Amino acid sequence: MAGAAQNRPAMSIEVFRAFYDSRPDEEHWELIDGVAMMMAPAKVVHQRIASNLERILNDALEAYRPGWAAYQRIGLNLRPFVDAYDPEPDVVVADVVHSLDLRYVDRFYLAAEVVSDSDRRTLEAKRGVYKVHPSCNCVLTIRQDRTEVRIDARQGAEWQLKILRNAADVLELEEFGLRCTVGDLYKGTPLASTNRRAG
C-alpha cells in the first residue's frame, strides 16, 4: 500500500468523490491510502454472506436498538480522523437513514468486510482506519472461502480480538442485540453444506 501511494501523489477525498460521481452506478470504487481502486464484482458467496449478516443484524437491531440499522456498501466519512481513505464496507451499522440521497454517513458503530486471501493487501489498512473512528466499536471480518469470523471489539480504550472458526460457535454482540451461530452467516452457501457434513 505505501509503495503504491509513493509512486504518485495521493488523491484527495474531494477529488476521489468527484471522480466517483462521474462513474456509472454499477462500478464500485474505494479510495485506499490515496489510491482510487475499482472493486471487482463480488462473488455470489460473498454477496450471500453479506446479505445474511445484514438481515441478522437488522432483525436484532429492530428489537434491541431501533434507532440503528444495517446497510450494505454505504460510504463512510472518516475525516477528520483519517485522510486518504474513502471505503465502502460490505455491511455497516449506522443511525437509521431518513434521506433519499445520502451516500455517506458520519457515524457508524460496526463495519464488516467479507474477504478472501486476495483481499489481504487492503484489508489490514481498512480494518485499521475503521478502528480509529471514535464511533466504531466493532469490526467484523468474515471469510468467504472458509468458516471464520474475526471480531475486533472495543473494550474501553482497548481493542479485543476473538476468532470463531466453527459453524456452531456463537457470535454474540451485546451492543447490537445480536446472538447467532457462525453457521447462520453461511446459510445458502457451499460452506453451509460443508459445515453440516463436518458436524
Q: Can you give keywords for this protein?
A:
alpha+beta; 12 strands; six-stranded mixed sheet; globular; tt1808, chain A; 6 helices; 199 residues
List the helices and strands and how they pair.
Blueprint: H1 2-7, H2 13-21, E1 28-32, E2 35-39, H3 44-64, E3 68-72, E4 75-76, E5 91-95, E6 104-105, E7 108-115, H4 120-132, E8 138-143, E9 149-155, E10 158-164, E11 170-173, E12 178-181, H5 182-185, H6 190-198
Parallel strand pairs: 4-6, 7-8
Antiparallel strand pairs: 1-2, 3-5, 5-7, 8-9, 9-10, 11-12
Plain-language structure description:
The protein is built from six helices and twelve strands. With 199 residues, the chain is α+β, with helices and mostly antiparallel strands. The strands form four sheets. A six-stranded mixed sheet has the order 3-5-7-8-9-10. A two-stranded antiparallel ribbon has the order 1-2. A two-stranded parallel ribbon has the order 4-6. β1 (28-32) and β2 form a beta hairpin. It starts with a helix and ends with a helix.
β-strand number: 12
Shape: globular
Q: Main β-sheet: number of strands, strand sense, barrel status?
A: 6 strands, mixed
User: Structural class of the helices, strands and pairings?
Assistant: alpha+beta
What is the radius of gyration? 17 Å
> SSE order in H/E notation?
HHEEHEEEEEHEEEEEHH
Question: What CATH architecture do you see?
Answer: Alpha-Beta Complex
Uncertain regions spanning at least 5 consecutive residues: 1-6
* CATH topology call: tt1808, chain A
Q: What fraction of residues sit in β-strands?
A: 25-35%
